[in-house]
C-alpha cells in the first residue's frame, strides 16, 4: 500500500516536472533571438512572404495562444510537425529514442563493468603498486571530457588500427531489414550475430567514450566504500572464518558498499544521456542527441520541444527506477 | 562551412596526435564510392521547407533530381530537361522545349505535363515553396507537342536562371499524385543521374546509378553518402579509408592532409562571399566613416594570414564568375586615405569614432578572427569597433527586422551569378535582406528589376555596384574557397555553386 502511494505521488511529481519543463522550453526557445522563418528566407523574399510562412507554421499567434494549442495537442498525443524534417515530431522522437537508449545502456554496462572491476581489483590489491596504477588510470579517465576520449578512440581504433566504424549506426551495405528501431536488441533476439557484430562495431567507440569518465567515478566511489567496509567487524569475522580475501570482498563487502554507488550511477546515468548529444554528433550516430543539435541550429521549435520533453521524461524515469531499486536493496528504506 | 571553436580545438588536438600516426589505408579499387558529407538531408522534397533553400544540400538533390535547366560546373547554363527556352517578342510569354526520351526512376516517361505541374506547384502559395514569389510570376500554361508556353504575369528577367537555382527541380506529377507527400518522402524518384536505393535518416543515403540517364550513366554505379556533420570526423573518414571524398574542413587541416600519401586536395572558389553589412544608422550616415572603414581593410593580407591564402579578395558583391562582375570597380587598401577621410569628419586615433560590429563565430571559416583583424586595422586609423558575437539565427532575425548593428559580418551565396540575387536583394531597401535603406540607391535599383534589355540590365547593375563601392554602402571582403579532400583514386570535378556532385566524379 505504502509503495503504491509512493508510486502515485512520484507519478504526480513527474507530471508536474514535465509540465514545468514544457513551459520553460516553450517560452525560452521563443524568447531567445532567432526564429525558424528568418532561417528559411531565400534571397528576394518580401515581408508578405515572411507573413505567409509565419501563418503556415502557426507562428503568427501570441506565445500564450501557441502554447495552449500545442499543449492541447500534446495531451492528445499530437506533438506537431517538425519544420525542417516535415514529419510528425512524435514519430521522429520515438524513432530516434531507441538508438540513444541502446547507446546509453551499452555505455552504462561498460562503465559499470570497467569501474566495478577496477574498484574490486584496487581493493584486493590495496596498498600495492597495482592500486596506485588503477588510481592514476582513474584520474586520467576522469580528467578528460568524453568528446576528447571519442577523438582519441577514433584516432587509435578508427584510423591507426581501423577495427571499428567512425560514423553511423549500421553499415549501408549490411542489407538487413530491421522490424524495430531497437537494432541491437532486435538483432540479439533474432540471433543475427553478424548484425550484432556490425552494430557493436559502430557503437563501441561512442559507448566507450561515454563510459570512460563514468567508469572512473564508479571506481572512485566504490573503492572508497569497499575500503570503509573492509574495516567493519563482520569482515574481521569472515577473515577469522578463513574465507579468502577475494571471496570476502565479493560476498560480504560488495553488497554493503554498492548502495551509494548505485545512487551515484543513477544520477550519473542522466548525465551520460545528456553527454550523448555531443558524442552522437562526433560519431554521426543517428540518435536523439544528434537530432537535437540540428533542431537547435535550425530553430525547429516543435522538434526541440518534443526532444526536451522526452529527455525530461527519461531523466525522471531513471530517477524513479533508481529510487525504487535503492528501496528494494535497502531493507531500512523498504520498511520505512 | 561550419567551423566552430570546438572544431578548431579538436582539430588542433588531433593534428598533434596525428603527427605520430601512420598513413591512411585505401582500398586498391573503388567499387562503391563513399562520400562523407557535411550536412544531413532533412527532407527529400527539394521544393518545400527550409532544406529547399539550404545551398549545401543541393548537391544531394541534384544527384537524384534534375533542375529545369542544367548548370555547368563553371555556373554557365546548358540544355538539360529543358533543351531550349526563351521569351516572345514583347516578353509577355515564355516558352520551354522539353527533352524527349527522358524517364523517371520508376520507368515512367517524363512529359511536358510534369514540367507544367512542377512549375504550377512551385508557384502555389499552398505548397510552402519558399521561392513561390518567383515561380508565381508565370502562369496559364499550355502545351503544344514538347513545347510548354506560359503567360508572364509579372516580368522577371531571372526566371530562367532560377530554373537552375533553389527549388528549380522537376518533380514527377503522376507518381507524386499517386503516393502523396509521405509516400514521396519514403520513396522519392527523379530523373537525375542517381536513384535512391536506401535512405537512413541522419545516417546515410545509398544511391545507384541511373543507367538510362539522358546525360549518360555516371561512372560510379553505387554511391553512399554518409552524413558526417563533425569536421574532424569527416577528415578521419578519409584518412581511415572509410570514405573516398569529403569536403569543408579547416584550411590548416586541408593543407596538412593533402600532403599525405593517397589523399588529394582540391580547392576552388565557389559562389559564396563574406561581407560587412552597413546599416544606415549613426555613425554610418557619415560617408567619410564608411569609406575610411573600407579603405582601411587589407583583404589580401587577411586572406593570406587567416585563410592560408584560400580566398579571393572582392570589392563588389560580384565574384569574377558572376554576370555583372566589373574588374574596374576597386576599393584599394589605403590607410593614409582612410585617415584623411576620418580627419575630415573630426575623427582620429585620439578621438576615435565608435560603433558596434556583429559577427558569427565558427559559422564561416575564421569569421570571428577576420573581424578581429579588421577591428585591429580600424583601431590604427581612429575607429573603435566593439565586437558582438551572435548566432546565425539571430543575424537572420535582426536583418529581417532591419535592426542589425551599424556593421555586421555575413556571407552571401549566389549560385546563378545574377546581380539581382547578389547586389539586388542584399542592397535594395525594401528587401528583408537589406539593411541599407538609402533613397538614392533604391532609385538606382528600382528600374533594373523590370529592365527587359539584358545588356542594359547588366550595365545598370554594374553602375549600381560602382555607386555602392564609391560610397561604401557595403564592404565586400572575400570570395570563399571550398576545400575537398579525396582519395587519389577518384577524380573530383568541383562545381562553382559549391554542390558536391558524385556524377562529376570518375576513377582517376
From TrEMBL, chain A:
<dbReference type="InterPro" id="IPR035906">
    <property type="entry name" value="MetI-like_sf"/>
</dbReference>
<feature type="transmembrane region" description="Helical">
    <location>
        <begin position="303"/>
        <end position="329"/>
    </location>
</feature>
<feature type="transmembrane region" description="Helical">
    <location>
        <begin position="105"/>
        <end position="125"/>
    </location>
</feature>
<feature type="domain" description="ABC transmembrane type-1">
    <location>
        <begin position="97"/>
        <end position="326"/>
    </location>
</feature>
<comment type="similarity">
    <text>Belongs to the binding-protein-dependent transport system permease family.</text>
</comment>
<keyword id="KW-1003">Cell membrane</keyword>
<dbReference type="Pfam" id="PF00528">
    <property type="entry name" value="BPD_transp_1"/>
</dbReference>
<protein>
    <submittedName>
        <fullName>ABC transporter permease</fullName>
    </submittedName>
</protein>
<keyword id="KW-0812">Transmembrane</keyword>
<feature type="transmembrane region" description="Helical">
    <location>
        <begin position="146"/>
        <end position="164"/>
    </location>
</feature>
<keyword id="KW-1133">Transmembrane helix</keyword>
<keyword id="KW-0472">Membrane</keyword>
<feature type="transmembrane region" description="Helical">
    <location>
        <begin position="257"/>
        <end position="283"/>
    </location>
</feature>
<feature type="transmembrane region" description="Helical">
    <location>
        <begin position="199"/>
        <end position="222"/>
    </location>
</feature>
<keyword id="KW-0813">Transport</keyword>
<dbReference type="InterPro" id="IPR045621">
    <property type="entry name" value="BPD_transp_1_N"/>
</dbReference>
<dbReference type="Pfam" id="PF19300">
    <property type="entry name" value="BPD_transp_1_N"/>
</dbReference>
<dbReference type="InterPro" id="IPR000515">
    <property type="entry name" value="MetI-like"/>
</dbReference>
<feature type="transmembrane region" description="Helical">
    <location>
        <begin position="12"/>
        <end position="32"/>
    </location>
</feature>
TrEMBL record, chain B:
<feature type="domain" description="Solute-binding protein family 5">
    <location>
        <begin position="80"/>
        <end position="423"/>
    </location>
</feature>
<protein>
    <submittedName>
        <fullName>ABC transporter substrate-binding protein</fullName>
    </submittedName>
</protein>
<feature type="signal peptide">
    <location>
        <begin position="1"/>
        <end position="27"/>
    </location>
</feature>
<dbReference type="InterPro" id="IPR030678">
    <property type="entry name" value="Peptide/Ni-bd"/>
</dbReference>
<dbReference type="Pfam" id="PF00496">
    <property type="entry name" value="SBP_bac_5"/>
</dbReference>
<dbReference type="InterPro" id="IPR006311">
    <property type="entry name" value="TAT_signal"/>
</dbReference>
<comment type="similarity">
    <text>Belongs to the bacterial solute-binding protein 5 family.</text>
</comment>
<keyword id="KW-0732">Signal</keyword>
<dbReference type="InterPro" id="IPR039424">
    <property type="entry name" value="SBP_5"/>
</dbReference>
<dbReference type="InterPro" id="IPR000914">
    <property type="entry name" value="SBP_5_dom"/>
</dbReference>
Amino acid at each position: 500500500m505504502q509503495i503504491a502511494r509512493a508510486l502515485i505521488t512520484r507519478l504526480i511529481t513527474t507530471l508536474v516536472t514535465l509540465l514545468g519543463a514544457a513551459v520553460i522550453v516553450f517560452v525560452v526557445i521563443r524568447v531567445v533571438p532567432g526564429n525558424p522563418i528568418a532561417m528559411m528566407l531565400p534571397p528576394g523574399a518580401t515581408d508578405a512572404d515572411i507573413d505567409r510562412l509565419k501563418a503556415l507554421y502557426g507562428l503568427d499567434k501570441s506565445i500564450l495562444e501557441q502554447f495552449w494549442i500545442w499543449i492541447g495537442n500534446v495531451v492528445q498525443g499530437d506533438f506537431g510537425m517538425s519544420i525542417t524534417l516535415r514529419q510528425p515530431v512524435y514519430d521522429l522522437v520515438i524513432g530516434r529514442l531507441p538508438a540513444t537508449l541502446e547507446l546509453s545502456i551499452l555505455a552504462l554496462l561498460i562503465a559499470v563493468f570497467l569501474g566495478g572491476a577496477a574498484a574490486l581489483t584496487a581493493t584486493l590489491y590495496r596498498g600495492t603498486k597495482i592500486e596506485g596504477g588503477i588510481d592514476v588510470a582513474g584520474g586520467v579517465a576522469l580528467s578528460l571530457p568524453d568528446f576528447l576520449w571519442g577523438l582519441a578512440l577514433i584516432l587509435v581504433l578508427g584510423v591507426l588500427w581501423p577495427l571499428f566504424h567512425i560514423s553511423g549506426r549500421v553499415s549501408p551495405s549490411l542489407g538487413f531489414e530491421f522490424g524495430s528501431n531497437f537494432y541491437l536488441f532486435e538483432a540479439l533476439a533474432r540471433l543475427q550475430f553478424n548484425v550484432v557484430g556490425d552494430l557493436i562495431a559502430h557503437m563501441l567507440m561512442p559507448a566507450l567514450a561515454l563510459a570512460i569518465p563514468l567508469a572512473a567515478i564508479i571506481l572512485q566511489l566504490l573503492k572508497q566504500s569497499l575500503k570503509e567496509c573492509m574495516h567493519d567487524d563482520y569482515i574481521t569475522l569472515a577473515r577469522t572464518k578463513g574465507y579468502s580475501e577475494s571471496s570476502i570482498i565479493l560476498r560480504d563487502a560488495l553488497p554493503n558498499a554498492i548502495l551509494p554507488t548505485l545512487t551515484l550511477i543513477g544520477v550519473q546515468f542522466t548525465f551520460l544521456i545528456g553527454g550523448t548529444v555531443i558524442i552522437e554528433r562526433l560519431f554521426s550516430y543517428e540518435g536523439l542527441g544528434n537530432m537535437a543539435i540540428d533542431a537547435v541550429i535550425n530553430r525547429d521549435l516543435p522538434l526541440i520541444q518534443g526532444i526536451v520533453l522526452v529527455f525530461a521524461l527519461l531523466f525522471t524515469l531513471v530517477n524513479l527506477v533508481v529510487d525504487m531499486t535503492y528501496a528494494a536493496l535497502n531493507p531500512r528504506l523498504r520498511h520505512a | 562551412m561550419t567551423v566552430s571553436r570546438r572544431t578548431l580545438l579538436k582539430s588542433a588536438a588531433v593534428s598533434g596526435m596525428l603527427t605520430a600516426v601512420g598513413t591512411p589505408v585505401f582500398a586498391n579499387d573503388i567499387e562503391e564510392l563513399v562520400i562523407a558529407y557535411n550536412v544531413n538531408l532533412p527532407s527529400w522534397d527539394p521544393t518545400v521547407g527550409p532544406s529547399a533553400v539550404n545551398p549545401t544540400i543541393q548537391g544531394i538533390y541534384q544527384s537524384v533530381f534534375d533542375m529545369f535547366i542544367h548548370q555547368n560546373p563553371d555556373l554557365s547554363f546548358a540544355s538539360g530537361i529543358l533543351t531550349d527556352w526563351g521569351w516572345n517578342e514583347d516578353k509577355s510569354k515564355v516558352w520551354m522545349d522539353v527533352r524527349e526520351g527522358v524517364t523517371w526512376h520508376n520507368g515512367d516517361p517524363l512529359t511536358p505535363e510534369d514540367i507544367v505541374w512542377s512549375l504550377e506547384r512551385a508557384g502555389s502559395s499552398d505548397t510552402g515553396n519558399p521561392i513561390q514569389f518567383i515561380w508565381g510570376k508565370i502562369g496559364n500554361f499550355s502545351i503544344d507537342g514538347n513545347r510548354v508556353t506560359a503567360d508572364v504575369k509579372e516580368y522577371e528577367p531571372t526566371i530562367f536562371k532560377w530554373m537552375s537555382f533553389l527549388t528549380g527541380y522537376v518533380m514527377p506529377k503522376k507518381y507524386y499524385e499517386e503516393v502523396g507527400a509521405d509516400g514521396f518522402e519514403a520513396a522519392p524518384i527523379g530523373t537525375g543521374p542517381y536513384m535512391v536505393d536506401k535512405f537512413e535518416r541522419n545516417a546515410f543515403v545509398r544511391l545507384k546509378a541511373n543507367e538510362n540517364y539522358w546525360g549518360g550513366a555516371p561512372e560510379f554505379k553505387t554511391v553512399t553518402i554518409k552524413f558526417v556533420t563533425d569536421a574532424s570526423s569527416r577528415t578521419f573518414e578519409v584518412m581511415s579509408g572509410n570514405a573516398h571524398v569529403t569536403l569543408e574542413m579547416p584550411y590548416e587541416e586541408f593543407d596538412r592532409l593533402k600532403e599525405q600519401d593517397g589523399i588529394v586536395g582540391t580547392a576552388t572558389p565557389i559562389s559564396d562571399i563574406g561581407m560587412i553589412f552597413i546599416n544606415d544608422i549613426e555613425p554610418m550616415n557619415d560617408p567619410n566613416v564608411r569609406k575610411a572603414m573600407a579603405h582601411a581593410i587589407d583583404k589580401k593580407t587577411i586572406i593570406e594570414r587567416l585563410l592560408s591564402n584560400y580566398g579571393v579578395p572582392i570589392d563588389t558583391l560580384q565574384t569574377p564568375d558572376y554576370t555583372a562582375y566589373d574588374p574596374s570597380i576597386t576599393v584599394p587598401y589605403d590607410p593614409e586615405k582612410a585617415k584623411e577621410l576620418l580627419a575630415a569628419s573630426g575623427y582620429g586615433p585620439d578621438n576615435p569614432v565608435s560603433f558596434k560590429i556583429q559577427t558569427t563565430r565558427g559559422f564561416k571559416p575564421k569569421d570571428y578572427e577576420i573581424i578581429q583583424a579588421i577591428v585591429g586595422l580600424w583601431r590604427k586609423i581612429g575607429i573603435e569597433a566593439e565586437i558582438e558575437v551572435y548566432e546565425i539565427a539571430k543575424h537572420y532575425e535582426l536583418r529581417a527586422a532591419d535592426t542589425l548593428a551599424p556593421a555586421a559580418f555575413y556571407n552571401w551565396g549566389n549560385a546563378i551569378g545574377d546581380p539581382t540575387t547578389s547586389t539586388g536583394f542584399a542592397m535594395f531597401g525594401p528587401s528583408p535582406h537589406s539593411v541599407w535603406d538609402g533613397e538614392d540607391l533604391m532609385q538606382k535599383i528600382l528600374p533594373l528589376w523590370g529592365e527587359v534589355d539584358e545588356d542594359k540590365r547588366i550595365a545598370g547593375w554594374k553602375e549600381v555596384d560602382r555607386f555602392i563601392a564609391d560610397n561604401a554602402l557595403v564592404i565586400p571582403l572575400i570570395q570563399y574557397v571550398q576545400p575537398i579532400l579525396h582519395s587519389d583514386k577518384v577524380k573530383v570535378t568541383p562545381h562553382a555553386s559549391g554542390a558536391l556532385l558524385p556524377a562529376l566524379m570518375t576513377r582517376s
